[in-house]
Amino acid sequence: xxxxxxxxxxxxxxxxxxxxxxxxxxxxxxxxxxxxxxxxxxxxxxxxxxxxxxxxxxxxxx
Length: 62
Hints:
Blueprint: H1 2-6, H2 18-26, H3 36-44, H4 52-60
């Protein structure tokens, strides 16, 4: 979740218990080590769409 927030994205979270909400909120303050975001990017490769325009357009396609 910290990686998602770092990428100027919205994190849509779900929780069934209050403590899950508290744990999820803590991610907003997490500082990732400098090399970790690149490692995550490399692992996700083309799976993660980073262009919001492409995400919006693909969601509108039938």
